[in-house]
Amino acid sequence: MAAVEASNKQVVLRDYVEGFPRESDLLVTTGTVRLSVPEGSNAVLVKNLYLSCDPYMRNRMSKLVGSYIESFKPGSPIAGYGVCKVIDSGHPNFKKGDLVWGITGWEEYSLITAPETFFKIKHTDVPLSYYTGLLGMPGMTAYAGFFKVCSPKKGETVFVSAASGAVGQLVGQFAKSTGCYVVGSAGSKEKVELLKNKFKFDDAFNYKEEPDLDAALKRYFPDGIDIYFENVGGKMLDAVLLNMKMHGRIAVCGMVSQYNLKQPEGIHNLFQIVVKRIRMEGFLVFEYYPQYPEYLEMVLPLIREGKIVYVEDIAEGLTSGPAALVGLFSGKNVGKQVVAVARE
Amino acid sequence: MAAVEASNKQVVLRDYVEGFPRESDLLVTTGTVRLSVPEGSNAVLVKNLYLSCDPYMRNRMSKLVGSYIESFKPGSPIAGYGVCKVIDSGHPNFKKGDLVWGITGWEEYSLITAPETFFKIKHTDVPLSYYTGLLGMPGMTAYAGFFKVCSPKKGETVFVSAASGAVGQLVGQFAKSTGCYVVGSAGSKEKVELLKNKFKFDDAFNYKEEPDLDAALKRYFPDGIDIYFENVGGKMLDAVLLNMKMHGRIAVCGMVSQYNLKQPEGIHNLFQIVVKRIRMEGFLVFEYYPQYPEYLEMVLPLIREGKIVYVEDIAEGLTSGPAALVGLFSGKNVGKQVVAVARE
Fold first, then answer.
1. Each residue of A114-124: pLDDT tens digit?
2. How does pLDDT run across A153-179, given as a tens digit for each residue?
3. One of this protein's Pfam families, by short name (chains A, B) (predicted)?
4. Suppose B45 and one of A318, B88, B236, B273 were both cysteines; which one would form an S-S bond, judging by CB atoms 3.0 to 4.6 Å apart?
């Protein structure tokens, strides 16, 4: 019996990127795909439903040497987290019809050769797209970074940068639920409104309207910051260091302001680490995935009770993918940027 | 009965210092002192025997605002750790003849108004001057920073900067006794020899002869660094960040290369904190003083058995104090810099 073939739209990286990525760095092409797994293989063939646009993906567009991730391959489709439906499976743990999330290709169909790295989706009474965000990698990132790295205590002050993004909006809400005072920064009036009115941050500001970030932080944290959830790096980090409290903690999740620079900005206020006895710790979500069930147990009831909200910015169709991904680096998205490839 | 008076030589700060301190920033003068404590006071009058020259003292020469320490007062004697003999006491815990160590004035006699902060010296079978170093603040600093902040494990790789100094030489020896591989950097051939031959570091290099610190570190740590004991900051820290291993730890003790700069150098490689999941933590020895008895219990037997060695650079007489202190910042001292004011 001849295998069924289908056309397969793909988003391909033209060449390694330097500086700010442009839409033209990505190419939408159409190939074909066999809709079954090769005989005898352990692979799984999936239909991609939702694709996640995440800041770390910028790093994979560069020619990387010895990083924690690999470069995308010029001429091949890029990859990222996605929500997928199993079409065919050669793996005992997965069967046709299963919904899963994990790292998949930016294309309509993908052959997954290491399906062990995928999570099965068991709860479908919440939007499926949430598994690219609140219930996926960014959710686990917020959970691990805030609770596990920062050990927050009730009454502490928390600052979150890139606060309306996929991770930041959750850190803020987790901080509120812990009884912390939380302020977020974002890059537009609209996002600041979102932080204050939708995510219930205690306060928020537009960093683009603050010529003096140190002064801004002193305004919002007259007694200093206990916990900084670091998403941006650069000048914001330097200003935060001047405003940390004694024994403050900085969870370093990312430094998106630096990803498009050839030479990262210099940080000048690191001696504050001694003065204030600060702990600054980098973390990667992969190491916390064994705690995903524990996270789901905490967060699913909160979602169902409406105690946690999540804002997504959904781009329709794979063809809109390049613009959606690139837009992340100029802050075009409001909330978690998702690309809807197909609605099942 | 009239109180006995004595002449009292003092080292006085002329004015706040900017940039590299010079001998002429300090003035040796002679006043008088009453050799008894005021009636009804809790104070203690001490004769200063040994004074400690420590890098952090540079910060107190500047006009500081909101730091963890206070500026020295222009026109008054500077202060620092010292070993002293009690001449008169109004405090129930101290009596004439007691040997103590703590923060005292740079002068022949000092009236200590908060003697509670002093430690009594109970073991005098070791050189008294050691209580400014190995058995004093620098010793506790090495102990707390290495064992408590870095949680070292046998077989790990350790890098120490300013390794022949008061703290560094101990960190290296503690690392060896833990079964670690340890390399130190210092600023002269003589110091490098000391590290290798006297303190038994596995290896050592002269950072002034290394145009490319990253390359030097890759030579000594082809598989990377687990623990960095940070004493210097600046370019060395930036190079170390590129060479840390996964889950590496950086104990930030000081950043002496930065203390004389108006604007600290920028650190560009901080994103490595995420890539390698590094924990970077500042600490101050004060918070660990409750563990001083535990430290003595560990270190005294090692000294007596000759399993730990300590090199001091002793300047004779208070008049030599300004040159000794200022010399610290050009690396003139070989080993722990002490000023011997009187030998009991």
1. 999 999 999 99
2. 999 999 999 999 999 999 999 999 999
3. ADH_zinc_N
4. B88
Predicted-complex ipTM score: 0.88
Interface contact A252-B274, CB threshold 8 A: yes
8 Å CB contact of B274 and A253: yes
Neighbouring-strand partners of residue B337: B313
State chain B's maximal CA–CA distance in angstroms. 72
Residue of A nearest to B275 (CA): A68
CB contact under 8 A, A271 and B278: no
Domains of chain A: 5-133+311-340 (3.90.180.10), 137-286 (3.40.50.720)
Residue in chain B lying closest to A150 (CA): B279
Cross-strand pairs, A250 = A228, A280
Q: Please report which helix (H) or strand (E) contains residue A75, including its range.
A: none
The size of the A-B interface in CB pairs under 8 A is 96
* Cα end-to-end distance, chain B, whole Å: 26
d(CA A167, CA B273): 19
Ordered alpha helix ranges (H), chain B: 57-60, 137-143, 168-177, 189-193, 213-220, 234-241, 272-275, 292-304, 321-327
Average pLDDT, chain A: 95
Asked if A256 contacts A57 with a C-beta cutoff of 8 angstroms, the reply is: no
Q: Chain A residues with CB inside 8 Å of B284's CB? A: 274, 277
* B269 vs A: CB within 8 A: yes
pLDDT tens for each residue of A286-322: 999 999 999 999 999 999 999 999 999 999 999 999 9
Cα separation of B62 and A133, whole Å? 49
Task: Identify any residues that bridge with B149 across adjacent strands, giving them in sequence order.
Answer: none
Residue B27 contacts A, CB cutoff 8 Å: no
User: Residue B169 and residue A235: Cα distance in Å, rounded?
Assistant: 36
Per residue in A150-176, is it b (16+ CB within 10 Å) or e — as a string? bebeeebbbbbbbbbbbbbbbbbbbbb
Q: Given pLDDT bands bounded at 50, 70 and 90, which one contains residue B67?
A: confident
CA dihedral A257, A312, A155, A269 (to 10 degrees): 0
Looking at beta carbons, which residues of chain A come within 8 Å of B266?
265-268
Does the CB of A150 have a partner CB in chain B at under 8 Å? no
Q: Are A235 and A254 in contact (CB under 8 A)?
A: no
pLDDT band with cut points at 50, 70 and 90 for residue A2: low
Contacts of A263 in chain B (CB under 8 A): 268
